[in-house]
Specification:
The structure holds two protein chains of two kinds.
Chain A: H1 2-21, H2 24-44, H3 52-69, H4 71-84, H5 87-92, H6 100-126, H7 135-163, H8 166-178, H9 194-202, H10 204-216, H11 227-230, H12 232-257
Chain B: E1 5-16, E2 23-34, E3 38-42, H1 49-56, E4 64-69, E5 72-73, H2 78-84, E6 85-88, H3 100-110, H4 116-126, H5 142-153, E7 160-164, H6 172-187, E8 191-196, H7 199-205, E9 208-213, E10 216-221, H8 223-228, E11 233-238, H9 244-255, E12 260-262, E13 267-271, H10 279-288, E14 293-299, H11 303-315
Parallel strand pairs in B: 3-8, 3-9, 6-7, 7-8
Antiparallel strand pairs in B: 1-2, 1-4, 4-5, 9-10, 11-13, 11-14, 12-13
Classes of the chains: A mainly alpha, B alpha/beta.
Amino acid sequence: MSTLAYDGGAMLGRQLRRIRNNPGLLILTQTMPITMLLFFGYVFGSALAMPGEQYRSFLVPGLLVATAANGIMTGMFQAAQDTHRGVMDRLRTLPMSRAAVPLGQAVADLVVTAAGTVPFLLVGLAVGWRIEGSTLEAAGAVGLLLLFRFATTWIGIFLGLLTRNEEAAGQLGGATFVLPLLSNAYIPTDGLPGWLRTVAEWNPISAVTTALRDLFGNAPVPDGAAWPVAHPVAGSLAWCAVLIAVFAPLAVRRYGRGER
Amino acid sequence: MTSTYAVLSEGLEKRFGPRNAEVHALRGLDLAVAQGTVCGLLGPNGAGKTTAVRLLTTLLRPDAGSARVAGHDLLRDPAAVRRAIGVTGQYASVDGDLTGRENLRLFARLHRVRGPAERAGELLERFGLTDAADRPASTYSGGMRRRLDLAASLVRRPEVLFLDEPTTGLDPASRNRIWDAVRELTADGTTVLLTTQYLEEADQLADDIALVDRGRVAHTGSPAQFKSLIGAHVEVVVTDPDVMVKAAAVLDQLTGAEPSFDHERRAVAAVTRDATLTLPRLVRELDAAGVPLLDASLQPPTLDDVFLRLTEERAA
């Protein structure tokens, strides 16, 4: 275990140094949700039945979760790039913990996500979003958000190790953009046709978004929703537990096996 | 027995691809590399050299066969193998987004070297990378990158160092630098297994050569033994194109090998296995056959000759 912690720490340091040396991608991924907040908040907000400010409050948790879901793409891209460039192979020849490499990547991603949440929420405050619940609940919301990001990153790492293809990761970016559209991140689901509403509410993004809205006090839990949305905190924890329990072992195993 | 060999493999097999379109990359590779020596795995592209290295460095699992590296069983104790080896290859690379110094410090930490920063500084100095130490490795030239790769394999002195085509694509100055570094290592007692397509490289560095062809070791021996496998390279240049065939007949008789023609230079060449053939005898025989000569030469074979001969023989 101490080997894992030591090697994982070294890999975390590596990932953070990479970002410091090459901050372009980070800046791009951090400005994207802010742009979307302003764009959706004012353009769509003007056309919806909800008043603009209320919609922007509704939208901030949704965009936080939608951005967290992008962990699939960033996780995949980095793992594929490391494999493609031969870094993974060199690490595999070292006498180090097998789990440390994917774990270091997932934890580094978490640090970056946590840091990126701050400017986004500041812009959120500027456009009318507020923490309307208790500080403890707000801290719980952030914790849940990071847990969700951790889960999606493991999906991405597994896919990246599986495909070893950076271009595929780029194309998946389009798919991860669609995922939040099929959820309650940008719109309430109660207006959707029955079957689509069911699909959207079983989307993990919906459970986590609802939990954040509830914990931040931005919007109440909707009535008559599917179980994960009706019980958003339990639903989110369950989704994250399932995703991590499935994809973290798969990713570690895939890393250890290489391409044998 | 095993302790005297740093690398010992028996019947290593590896297949790639789907079941109906398999590529049989290794078909029973037997290899024995004595401790403290340099073994050159020599072979054309696709012979299985890189697959062999990937198996021996725990990156791939063999489909059949067994191997011991630095005394540790490859399949039963891959972790112990990893503790004993260093790997530099075109596929196993340093991190381009980190600086040279950051890379070496990272690898030193992962190898549990005490004082990783000092060790990184030493290696940067030794490989002439101090000036570029704090630039991202992605900005390095090919030669610098390869030196950094090699340095990264040496953060802790490995018992066995694997070098997969260490100088492919490098200019002569960079290549010599890598060669010098390898010679220094072997002087310290490190065993080196290197793959190369360059016969000169094997000739320069290797104590023993294993010729790999279609997934098997086709031939082993020292560079000198390889060269003595076939006698000398004979070439004659004649005055008149019409006598080239006559010259070839004489060469055929003397060498027992089929001569080759270079019509532009009016030259006829052959490789002889007969070690007793001398230049005066060659000239006498040609003169007796009435072949007017411009030039004649008898040269010890290069490894290229050996290589071509051995792979052609196997293909035939």
